[in-house]
Write a structure and sequence with these properties.
six-stranded antiparallel beta barrel; GTP binding; Rossmann fold; eIF2G; 32 helices; GTP-binding; single chain; 32% helix; alpha+beta
Length: 1237
């Protein structure tokens, strides 16, 4: 069925009431006509409402916003908004006051007398306006501001006039004077004519912004009233004036009068109001408190009554929009308080004021319309807003900060403000947050200020003992509640272990919560014989020159990328910080021969099952659990390497097979290992990137010879060092060849000794904060210490001491004393495994009760932790026996020049002086002044020392270059023992710190302890007769252990299973066997690398296409040969070639040609249009093509062209390449980052 809606089928009739109805003739359907009539009627009603609203807005622009009298009600000095209309040649600016009514007039020409300026402005042409404006009462305003009153300086005035002429935007100015002008004609008699002068010279920094915001808010409120009046049926005239009188002018007036009349009373009621706000004892007191705290109407706003009154009106409309059930009188009482109740609104709420108003407007309907319109317009005012206040607090004990957070959260907020929450931002910065409506902003701000004051009082008046006691009471209360809840459930039994008694109640309660929420507790309860499964038993350092593959070896063995710092990611994987990864070495449970039976896996997650055997794919079991410490290879980061070396039990020295031997940092790192006492059983030399010697079409024979020659250079280089006689394995971290042999070597290493006797000594290598921004401060986690346990054992709940802790300095910055930090171990972690106790071995993390502000960003790195009374002394001055490293040991160029002819480069230890026999025995360089090229120290010289994991600087007080002795005054305090070995760095001219040698601590002057007896300046001596001439020499009892290497030399039984050395030949005689195995693996698994297939790129075919263009006819074929998308090559030509714009051509549809997804046949037809007139174009294009192949096709390691370019965008040649483009070789598996085009 069809409905005929043509005009011929419709007939309009009028009923008795005069309303218009429409009937339609349809084929059997009569309801469609009624629906159409209703739709038409609704549209007519909406059109009428829109027309009335437009009339209201047009008429409302001539009405004032604040007072019926307009500008006459304003006081002198009021900040008003001025809208410029015209600017005269002499700099007079004429315009209107949009806040006080007035339409831009149609042309009063200005009169005589006082209106001379207005006449000039009215007759001025080219400015698009006049000076006179008419008000709704028939009056006329002439508003102006002179050039000299627009700024404080001439330049400021000149710039301001230029801005006004360019934009004609409204600006704020101060009302200076209002003068009544005489009439110029009969028509002007009876109409007021005012001349208003403004000034901008005395405006404050925020006056303009506040005036503009107030104007915008007032316009929005006026729009609400105008729209409500239109809804209530008002007309543009008297009805709108009445509506504004009731809902704007009277409200402003009453609010202003109430504030002025109660200014004196506010001083008397301030205390009562504050008390009522804080306690909330009674409603009346609360109302008085809100009056001062919420609405901002207290004595602090004295002198700003008008602004406060305006804010009250804004709050009134917002409250009216929120309160759907409350009467208008109740809303006014809520906003204004009992002192300013806005009683003028009684006429509106009680419907008894219409007799006195010259209008028939329904006031009740108007009031409801205002409520509805306010709710529609002021949506943002109805949403709660979060208000924040920053707190900065630091304390040695994290319990004090937790107690502070609980105390703040227990404070009672004022009405309308939510309870405070204290969250973590970044310790020591925390944040107190409350939620409130926007009209309660001042109440929320005042409450946040109270919270900050309370926090300041707690930290200033109460000491740590008081805070700790209060925190302990809260913990006890929480424990009691938890125990009562557990007893209420018959299925759960309370933990009644004896370990929870005494002073460990707090730690036991926190531990129980953690165990209940941790699924890994079963792993903790395993037998202690399986310690190697839970905790790493060795720390293996990866050392060597930059880009020799240290991180790649670690990633292959552990499956973890050690570059986690944001700075390292920005540098595309370059190691800047110390990297950490745990690794488990597994062996086949069957009969597979070594080294095929070995396989590695990550050691962080204890829930992972062991991987299958590479040979038989059978089950495997863990034979060794180690921690890797990935060190940076840059020269400027030698300090970072020294910090990590303090925790080494063994080391992997990486030497790239495609680079010369020795690389500078390879030599420096090896010298450090030698000076630290490592031997060939603790070091393994990895000939990494060995596959690169076979690439480039060299063949197996040539590659094997090159590999053997490179190995011979390594053996010659490591002579008389810690790596002499160490295993030398040719490996490929990318292909994985011979990496199982490396796993076998790791399995042969004995575990670190458990350390018999003495207290626990923990070397802090790193410290960090595990709290995240937004975490609740009430459950703040303490700082975490990462490092290696060198001696003894530690258990959860033990009390440990950190030395030196906090250092006190005098006004000149000199060290006065130190104060150790005493804390409790909350949790012990190894990867993702929580341990109840820990023994000397791999890297672990200790969560403590230390303020995380102290541990974040490696704040406690370099300190020594352990049980109180077992830690080494803290020195502020030390005496060193120096051993300088030779140029050969440091890998410097010209080590064999004539300047070093006095010393043999292969055995520099022969040139050491008599006082350095111990250093010479360890493979050190020349001692004291006996070695040429050694630094010549002088008093006041600056040195940088690496004491364990601590890095500090010092000043030479006395020295003897001939004997190699020096007395160093430290800039900080270090904890070390007599006999410890320290790395010494000197600052070369024009360069940074450079490693120069090592020193042995022979004597030292201890630093005073805070709160203890003041120590005399006496020397702590390690042996008799070796003093430096001090007044009194005292001998310190010999310590049980000295350096970290002594733990490795102990003859204690290993705690984990080891392998027999006979199963794998890691001696120097087995080098040839490992090279042959590596070659066999290459031939078996990496045949593509040996074949080295070359790419054949067709030469460019260029054809001129007119005088200004050329075509690359076989561009698509070139891209197919290079296996690169055409868009990328075209973008490179456009960016690097200087040949102008380029575009793809040759295909009807090139939308998919840019990415190369159009098919090989279409790609063969693809062309590149070059918009250029360049000469010798063929040579330039060939040169660009070669450059492109070098950068984006050829592998940087093996020079193979069989590579792929991984990218995320580039569908269009004008879209530039992203920063995550990676060039990956399909032969050697090397990957490098490609630069952005």
């Amino acid at each position: 069925m069809q409905t005929n809606n043509n005009n011929n089928n419709n007939k309009s009739v009028n009923d008795n009431d005069g309303t218009r109805k429409t009937t339609a003739r349809t084929d059997g359907i009569g309801n469609d006509g009624g629906a159409a009539a209703a739709t038409a009627e609704g549209k007519a009603v909406r059109r009428e409402a829109k027309r009335r609203l437009r009339e209201m807005r047009t008429f409302g622009e001539s009405l004032p916003l604040y007072h019926k009298e307009g500008i006459m009600a304003a006081e002198m000095g009021t900040i008003v908004m001025f809208k410029p209309v015209a600017v005269t040649k002499d700099g007079m600016i004429y315009g209107t006051l949009p806040e006080y009514g007035g339409l831009e007039g149609g042309g009063a020409k200005g009169g005589g007398g006082g209106g001379g300026g207005a006449a000039a402005a009215g007759g001025e042409k080219g400015y698009g306006g006049t000076a006179g404006v008419r008000t709704h009462g028939g009056g006329r305003l002439v508003v102006c501001i002179s050039h000299s009153n627009t700024g404080r300086t001439t330049r400021e005035c000149r710039e301001f006039i230029k801005t006004v002429k360019k934009t004609y935007r409204p600006f704020a100015a101060e009302l200076v004077s209002i003068e009544e002008m005489s009439s110029n004609s009969v028509e002007d008699i009876g109409a007021s004519k005012l001349f208003i002068t403004l000034d901008r010279r005395h405006l404050g920094p925020n006056d303009s912004e506040q005036a503009f915001n107030r104007w915008q808010q007032a316009k929005r409120l006026a729009a609400i009233v105008d729209a409500a009046a239109a809804t209530a049926g008002a007309t543009a005239g008297t009805d709108l004036v009445v509506a504004r009188q009731l809902w704007l002018y009277d409200v402003y007036e009453r609010a202003t009068e109430g504030l002025k009349n109660t200014g004196n009373q506010a001083d008397e009621d301030g205390d009562e109001g504050g008390e009522g706000e804080a306690n909330g004892a009674a409603d009346q007191s609360a109302e008085k408190g809100h009056e001062g705290g919420e609405g901002g109407l207290d004595e602090e706003d004295e002198g700003e009554d008008e602004l406060a009154a305006f804010n009250m009106v804004v709050q009134f409309f917002a409250a009216l929009a929120r309160s759907a059930d409350a009467t208008i009188q109740q809303v006014a009482l809520e906003v204004g308080g009992q002192r300013v109740a806005l009683h003028k609104l009684q006429a509106v709420s009680e419907h008894n004021g219409s007799q006195s108003l010259d209008s028939e407007l329904d006031l009740a309907k108007l009031g409801e319309a205002v409520r509805v319109e306010s709710a529609r317009v002021l949506k943002s005012e109805l949403k709660p807003t979060s208000y924040r206040h920053s707190l900065t607090c630091s304390n040695a004990d994290v319990e004090a900060i937790r107690y502070l957070a609980l105390a703040i959260e227990a404070m009672v907020p004022p009405a309308g403000v939510s309870k405070p929450k204290v969250t973590v931002v970044s310790p020591p910065t925390y944040e107190v947050t409350v939620t409130a409506m926007q009209h309660r902003q001042q109440a929320a701000s005042a409450f946040l200020s109270e919270c900050a004051q309370m926090a300041q009082q707690l930290f200033s008046n109460d000491d740590l003992q008081t805070l700790a006691a209060a925190a302990a009471q809260q913990r006890q209360a929480a424990m009691s509640a938890t125990k009562a809840a557990s007893q209420a459930k018959p299925a759960n039994h309370a933990d009644g272990s004896g370990g929870g008694g005494g002073g460990g109640g707090g730690g036991g309660e926190r531990l129980a919560v953690h165990e209940g929420s941790n699924d890994g507790s079963a792993a903790v309860d395993m037998d202690e014989d399986d310690t190697h499964v839970l905790q790493p038993t060795l720390n293996i350092g990866l050392v060597g020159h930059v880009a020799h593959g240290k991180s790649s070896v670690c990633r292959y063995l552990s499956g973890k990328r050690t570059q986690q710092h944001s700075q390292e990611r920005k540098l595309h994987g370059a190691t800047v910080k110390l990297g950490y990864a745990n690794c488990k070495v597994c062996r086949c449970a069957g009969s597979c021969p070594a080294p095929v039976c070995f396989v590695t896996m990550g050691g962080d997650d204890p829930s992972l099952s062991t991987p299958p055997c590479n040979g038989c794919e059978g089950p495997t079991y863990v034979v060794k659990h180690v921690s890797f410490v990935d060190t940076p290879g840059h020269h400027d980061l030698i300090n970072t390497m020294l910090t990590g070396a303090s925790a080494f039990d063994g080391a992997l020295l990486l030497v790239a097979a495609n680079e010369a031997v020795p690389a500078p940092q390879t030599a420096s790192h090896l010298a450090i290992l030698t000076q630290m006492g490592f031997n060939n059983s603790q070091v393994c030399v990895l000939q990494n990137k060995s596959e690169l010697l076979f690439g480039g079409g060299r063949g197996v024979a040539e590659g094997s010879a090159a590999l053997e020659s490179h190995a011979a250079k390594i053996r010659s280089f490591v002579k008389d060092t810690a790596a002499e006689g160490a295993p030398l394995l040719p490996v490929s971290a990318q292909l994985g060849h011979n990496m199982d042999a490396l796993a076998g070597w790791l399995g042969t290493l004995p575990d670190r000794g458990t350390g018999v006797g003495g207290g626990a000594v923990f070397n802090v290598v790193r410290s960090f904060d595990t709290n995240h921004p937004g975490d609740a401060t009430r459950s703040l986690k303490g700082g975490v210490l990462g490092g290696a346990l060198l001696e003894g054992s530690l258990r959860r709940g033990d009390t440990v001491e950190l030395r030196p802790g906090r250092v006190t300095r005098d006004e000149k910055g000199k060290v006065v004393s130190f104060s150790p930090i005493v804390t409790k171990i909350v949790k012990i972690m190894s990867g993702k495994t929580e341990l109840p106790s820990v023994v000397p071995g791999g890297l672990i993390a200790l969560e403590t009760d230390i303020d995380p502000a102290l541990t974040r960003a490696d704040g406690l790195t370099g300190m020594v932790a352990g049980k109180p009374g077992s830690l080494p002394p803290c020195f502020k001055r030390i005496f060193l026996d120096l051993t300088w490293l030779t140029a050969h040991q440091l890998g410097q160029k010209g080590a064999g020049d004539a300047s070093d002819s006095d010393s043999d480069s292969d055995s520099d230890s022969d040139t050491s002086s008599e006082g350095d026999e111990e250093a010479a025995a360890g493979g050190g360089g020349g001692g004291g002044g006996g070695a040429k090229g050694a630094p010549k120290l002088a008093p006041k010289d600056r040195l940088q020392l690496s004491v364990g994991s601590a890095i500090t600087t010092g000043r030479v007080k006395r020295c003897s270059n001939r004997q190699g002795k020096a007395e160093i005054v430290l800039d900080s305090v270090v904890a070390c023992r007599i006999g410890d070995r320290i790395a010494v760095e000197v600052k070369k001219e024009g360069k940074g710190w450079s490693l120069a040698g090592f020193g042995i601590v022979r004597e030292g002057v201890e630093c005073n302890l805070d709160g203890g007896a003041q120590l005399d300046e006496k020397v702590v001596d390690g042996a008799e007769g070796e003093g430096q001439g001090e007044d009194e020499a005292s001998t310190m009892p010999p310590s049980t252990t000295s350096a970290a290497t002594e733990a490795a030399d102990e003859t204690t039984e290993p705690s984990g299973p080891t392998l027999d050395h006979d199963t794998l030949n890691f001696s120097e005689g087995g080098d040839e066997d490992w090279r042959q195995r590596f070659t066999a693996l290459l031939e078996e698994k990496s045949r593509a690398l040996l074949d080295h297939t070359r790419l054949k790129v067709p030469p460019p075919v260029l054809v001129r296409d007119g005088g200004a263009r050329a075509r690359w006819m076989n561009f698509g074929a070139t891209c197919l040969a290079l296996r690169r998308p055409p868009s990328h090559l075209a973008a490179f030509i456009r960016a690097e070639g200087g040949l102008g714009e380029v575009s793809l051509a040759g295909l009807d549809d090139i939308s998919e040609a840019g990415t190369g997804s159009c098919g090989d046949l279409a790609m063969g037809k693809l062309q590149l249009r070059l918009h250029t007139r360049a000469r010798a174009l063929m040579d330039k294009v060939c040169k660009l093509l070669r450059k492109y192949c070098v950068e984006f096709v050829s592998c940087k390691q093996c020079r193979s062209a069989q590579t792929t370019l991984t990218r995320n965008d580039d569908k269009d040649i004008r879209r530039r390449a992203t920063a995550d483009m990676v060039l990956t070789c399909r032969e050697c598996s090397a990957s490098t980052f490609a630069r952005r085009i």
